[in-house]
Write a structure and sequence with these properties.
alpha/beta; Spore Coat Polysaccharide Biosynthesis Protein SpsA, Chain A; 2 domains; seven-stranded mixed β-sheet; two-stranded antiparallel ribbon; 10 helices
């Protein structure tokens, strides 16, 4: 007896649908691709089935980043429009795919089978409710066994999410979810620049800073279908996310530390001006004042970096 993948609609279990001709799509699904022959056709079929179910004029745009395993041919056979992002990187592929998308609303999702494109209707519904940026939330939905490592689920994503929300007030709980949607107009206004995995942080930060209406929707995360290691490198890409978040928040990176150091140093100087004092059994004297003045100078220098950044 034949066993079907529960994610595949019954009408997709056989031959793929003929390629549709959509002159003016309402929704575009953009899928970055680098050697995803095993799963790209499955993802395209899911997205196109969702369009049919919703009665939406949609297109699937596969943004290829140099595949050599037949992914391009498979994508075209399954009815996707393939575009070619020449600059290497996950973010680069997404940026080019968004640029080439023709829909009013653009939904992003990965090509490894971990995102259930049958759920894109939730993103479209939020868009029609007036939201400009819609991000998936794996924690509010369901994370299948083996779909997400422990350190991503309990350490990396919660920490980065907390920092980004503290700095920018995005108000979301899963900043690393790759399945997200935005209006084409918003994507043009935000002027994305990053080429790597930190695109996930860049897009959300810029949306929050622009005052865009942001919403979350629950999604299901499945184990990826690849038979090779993922492109993601946890510590390298985690550091790139953290660095981008910090550089995007110069007030937190420079003003607060600079002001704190200068104020702390100045407070010690004023305390010791009348003469030596004791902190418990430790005597603080002119040597301590010298160290405190170094803190004042260091804090002032850090503070001035932020002012120069702002002036530039």
């Amino acid at each position: 007896m034949r066993t079907l993948n529960p994610l595949v609609p019954l009408d997709l279990a056989g031959e793929p649908y003929p390629a549709p001709i959509v002159d003016d799509p309402e929704v575009s699904v953009v899928i970055p691709c680098l050697n995803e022959a095993k799963s790209i056709g499955f993802c395209i079929d899911k997205a196109r089935a969702a369009f049919r179910e919703m009665g939406v004029a949609g297109e699937v745009v596969v943004s290829d980043n140099g595949s050599t395993d037949g992914s391009i041919d498979i994508a075209e056979e399954h009815g996707a429009r393939v575009v070619h992002a020449e600059v290497k990187g996950y973010g680069s592929a997404l940026r080019y795919g968004i640029q080439q998308a023709r829909g009013q609303f653009v939904i992003l999702g990965d090509a490894d089978g971990s995102h259930d494109f049958a759920e894109i209707g939730r993103f479209v519904a939020k868009w029609r409710d007036g939201y400009e940026f819609v991000i998936g939330n794996r924690f509010l939905g369901e994370i299948k066994n083996g779909a997400m490592s422990w350190h991503h689920r309990h350490l990396g994503t919660p920490v980065l999410t907390s920092i980004l929300n503290l700095f920018f007030g995005a108000g979301v709980t899963d900043i690393n979810c790759g399945m997200r949607g935005m209006t084409k107009q918003l994507s043009q206004n935000l002027d994305f620049r990053t080429n790597g995995m930190e695109f996930a942080s860049e897009s959300l930060i810029k949306a929050a800073k622009s005052g865009a209406h942001i919403a979350e929707v629950p999604i299901t995360m499945w184990p990826d279908q690849r038979d090779r290691a993922p492109h993601l490198r946890s510590f390298r890409d985690g550091w790139r996310h953290l660095r981008f978040i910090a550089l995007s928040a110069p007030n937190w990176l420079f003003l607060l530390p600079g002001f704190t150091l200068a104020a702390f140093g100045l407070g010690i100087v004023l305390w010791l001006l009348p003469g030596p004092a004791f902190a418990g059994k430790v005597e603080l004297n002119t040597n301590t004042i010298s160290l405190a003045m170094m803190l004042v100078l260091l804090g002032t220098h850090i503070f001035s970096i932020r002012l120069a950044w702002f002036a530039g």
